[in-house]
Amino acid sequence: MIVSLNEADVMAAKAARGAGRPWGLAQEAGRAASALEALRLPGAACLLDVLNATDGVPCEELRPGSTQTACWQAEIPMCPLLVGAFISDLGALSQKVMLRQVRSPLLLVPFCLMAFDNVVFNWSDCTIRTSGDGISAQGDPKTAIADQVSIDGSAPARETTHSWQRGAVDIADEIWEALSAFAHRTYVPASEASRLKGAGAGLTDND
User: Fold this and answer.
1) What gap in Å lies between CA 113 and CA 107, rounded to an integer?
2) What is the residue-level pLDDT of the chain in tens, covering all 207 positions?
3) Per the CB 3.0–4.6 Å rule, which of 114, 143, 183, 205 could disulfide with 88?
4) Domain extents in the chain
């Protein structure tokens, strides 16, 4: 499916809302997914993985128990959207942090870019370094669950392997359709009254 970055943003936000995220966080999810797609990284796929895995789980169970410690963790794998929101809100207070058990940690990258100029992420066999031009990535960034993620917001920039790009992006049809299914949960079901008041012929068809 060839879509614009704006379309990817809107669809991702609606999907996150449909999966139970508050609207503010859902909008952040849309921006994060589309930012990764702008870097030609699998933002939509990572978001879908998170939504499928956490569907129906209360947000309270998916966020860190405390952000006052050097290591953030929860009783179950954490949602990168919630963790990322904490990082972008805390700014310098979260400049160096260790995370345990995070789903699709790639989604953390856009949130951290809002808090720091240069960031280094390490998880599993992946290292990501950011700069104003994009990111450099070593290893496979698409990890379902990272047992441990280290974030260093004071690290120097490196040569980029994924630069920011404009224009349409190609999201696999099955991923787009799955996100659309989550998004449809946000739509109000049509009623007889709404059909009569809305567009269309209602009960009378003059054609």
Assistant:
1) 11
2) 999 999 999 999 999 999 999 999 999 999 999 999 999 999 999 999 999 999 999 999 999 999 888 899 999 999 999 999 998 888 766 678 899 999 999 999 999 888 887 889 999 989 999 887 889 999 999 999 999 999 998 877 778 899 999 889 999 999 999 999 999 999 977 555 544 555 444 444 444
3) 114
4) 2-185
Grouping H, G, I as helix, E, B as strand and the rest as coil, residue 170 is strand
Q: Are 103 and 53 in contact (CB under 8 A)?
A: yes
For residue 43, the one-letter residue type is G
pTM value is 0.88
Please give the Cα distance from 99 to 149 (Å, whole number).
5
Tokens of 201: 């012929």
Rounded-to-integer distance, Cα 3 and Cα 33, Å: 13
DSSP 8-state secondary structure symbol assigned to residue 78? B
Strand partners, 78: 102
d(CA 34, CA 29): 9
Decide if 118 contacts 65 (C-beta within 8 A).
no
